[in-house]
Amino acid sequence: MRCIKCKAPANVEVRRHRSAFCAGCYPDWFRTQVQRTIDDHRMFSRDDRVLVAISGGKDSLALWHALLRLGYQTDGMYIRLGIGDYSVRSQAKSEAFAARHGLQLHQVDLAADHGFTIPQMRNQREGKPCAACGTVKRYHFNKVAVDLGYSVVATGHNLDDEAATLFGNVLHWQTDFLGRQGPVLESTHSNLARKVKPLYRLAERDSAAYAIIERIDYIVEECPMAIGAKSLAYKDTLNALEETQPGLKYQFLVGFLRQGRKALKTEDPVQIRQCAKCGQPTTAEVCAYCRMVERRLKKLPVRR
Ligand code: FES
Ligand code: ZN
After folding, report:
1. Range of 211's domain?
2. Which CATH number fits the domain that encloses residue 193?
3. Tens-digit pLDDT profile for residues 271-291
4. Would you tell me which of 37, 74, 206, 302 could form a disulfide with 202, CB atoms 3.0–4.6 Å apart?
5. Of all protein residues, whose CA lies closest to atom 1 belonging to ligand 1?
């Protein structure tokens, strides 16, 4: 196999593109894909201040690195989730990356600043805190972005993440989630930052290859709380299909965004107001974050 750019022996194969690259040409290809996605969806410009959601994993650090090389103004934000050794090591990787590149990394410490950790947020039915963790992350990334004047929050969600989410939402016919799924979530309130996913057309292994070639030191293991999560089973199923049908995940996701989503999108403006407890934007009287923290910490049964 040869690099499609310079014809040197290839190091990375991208089967869905029927392409392969040498280690010298691959990073440019990766960054070009990121730039195209940003441009195609008008995600942000070089005048915007972008807050990158950092987990210490390959996707968020590869995204931060690529945005930096592409000349965007970025700072990072890391949430100390309190997931034992995993959190200690992912924090160290995130801080080391920021220090190495002279970048600012904002941090929120759930235990010290808010009196709880993610393992305490386990759902009594599923025994997993992943859904709660998603709510916590969305809440704090948005709050820090708005409080510190960032116009947009960029996350490292990749093709595998987005295809698995779509698959789960289709299996359960979550039409309201399907109508909202996409690479850009516009701000509909002055206290809501725009959310964008510049890696959504790149696969997990594309960011891993970028991180390795660019010598980005990331936390390799997955979050221990996610073991047995449905999203991982969906990824395995899609990977098995992709093995014999390269490009299937991409077609599934991009086909949905082009053709399926508009049928499910509701144009009704949702009434946004301020949470009675914390003042953050919400559609209910008390926001999902405040309700969840109160309910889980009191260990009350989860309402269905
Ligand atoms: Fe949130 Fe694992 S990173 S539960
Ligand atoms: Zn609230």
Report:
1. 25-244+252-264
2. 3.40.50.620
3. 889 999 999 999 999 999 999
4. 206
5. 133
Mutational test site, ligand 1, from 223, 230, 231, max ligand atoms within 8 Å of CB = 223
Does a structural domain hold residue 294? no
Number of H helices, E strands in the chain: 11, 10
Does a structural domain hold residue 12? Answer: no
Q: Could you give the C-alpha distances from 263 to 137, 159, 165, 179, 184, in angstroms and in order?
A: 29, 22, 18, 8, 17
Q: CA-to-CA distance for 44 and 194, rounded, in angstroms? A: 9
Give the tens place of pLDDT for each residue, 23-60. 999 999 999 999 999 999 999 999 999 999 999 999 99
Number of domains the chain is built from: 1
Note whether residue 270 is domain-resident: no
Question: What atom in ligand 1 is closest to the CA of residue 129?
Answer: 4
How many beta carbons lie within 10 A of that of residue 189, not counting itself?
Answer: 14
Residue to substitute in 90, 110, 118, 122 for testing ligand 1 pocket (most ligand atoms within 8 angstroms of CB):
118
Query: What's this model's pTM, rounded to 2 decimal places?
Result: 0.94
